[in-house]
Amino acid sequence: MTSKTVLITGCSSGFGYGCVNAFLEQGFRVVATLRDADTRKELFRDLLNRYESHLYVASLDVTDGEERKSIANLLETKFGGQLDCLINNAGFGLFGALEDTSEAQIREQIEINLMGTVFLTRQLLPFIRAAKGRIINMSSVLGYMALPLSSMYAASKFAIEGFSESLRYELSSHGVKVCIVEPGGFRTRFADNQRWGEDAFNQNSAYRTQTDNYSAFQNKQRTGAGTPPDAVIKACVHLATARCPPFRVRCGNDAQMAYFLQCLLPSRFLDFLLNTMFDRVFHGRRGHD
Ligand SMILES: NC(=O)c1ccc[n+]([C@@H]2O[C@H](COP(=O)([O-])OP(=O)(O)OC[C@H]3O[C@@H](n4cnc5c(N)ncnc54)[C@H](OP(=O)(O)O)[C@@H]3O)[C@@H](O)[C@H]2O)c1
Fold this sequence. Notes:
The protein is an alpha/beta fold. It has one domain (5-262): Rossmann fold. It has eleven helices and nine strands. Strands 3-2-1-4-6-7-9 form a seven-stranded parallel beta sheet, sandwiched between helices. Helix 1 (14-25) links the parallel strand 1 and strand 2. Helix 5 (103-131) packs parallel to helix 6 (151-172). The longest helix is centred in the middle third of the chain and has 29 residues, at 103-131. The chain is globular, with a radius of gyration of 20 Å. The termini are far apart. The model has no long low-confidence stretch (mean pLDDT 94). The chain binds NADP nicotinamide-adenine-dinucleotide phosphate. NADP nicotinamide-adenine-dinucleotide phosphate is lined by residues 9-16, 34-35, 60-63, 89-92, 112, 116, 138, 140, 183, 185-186, 188-190, 193.
């Protein structure tokens, strides 16, 4: 058992919610943050009953500078400035062709998935440095292998990878460890919360066939039971508690396979394979123009 403190973003569902429970079970004091916490505290009623003294639920929209400051104040006043682990988990997926996506949607994707992580980390680093703590950033298989119709989501996750890698070296002499988790597809509310470009389903879109086929492909994937999020939650606990945690953990067979193919195959051959596969899925045809 430990009396360490972890702060997790995006705790209303999925990996974030699962992590709250898992870290409480490990004896951590958990600051579970989510948007509009005041109206959604009910989500944590059972956990608050069970772990009253160890669970603190707080509002945090990661894009809101005032709320980020309030969280830092809260850590100072309620937890004596102790923060041993920050899990930057909040995020969502924006899909659709770049041309079908509005500037506002692009900015929102980067603002939440990347800048939210960057600014919150910057705000809380003095506490994490003092504790010689850890930062765990949620990346994705799309953080190292991009798919079509997800350019801005992939851009946000590739950026998380570069941000984390640089920070890992920058902070290592300060005793702070930075890690990333790279999940493949898992059953959370990610699919329900994903958004499409404003014009993705517009009849006049030049990408309409690709979008329809990709959307149908996603729906087919979703009708199965899906993989429960346990492996990702377990990975977060491992990264927070292991003496020498690895920099990255890939979760799920799809994430492992993507990495395996990248390492094993010459890049031109992999490119050919992916193009052929994407042609089938996105254009519903066999060849490549
Ligand atoms: N599930 C997968 O297959 C998968 C695969 C690879 C990577 N990921 C990544 O895993 C992370 C968690 O996703 P999930 O799968 O657990 O999906 P999820 O169930 O949709 O959870 C996403 C969480 O992020 C929160 N969020 C969104 N925008 C926010 C903001 N501005 N400020 C604070 N919180 C915000 C959501 O809160 P609200 O309820 O307020 O919207 C929700 O709690 C994401 O970064 C995602 O990109 C997921």
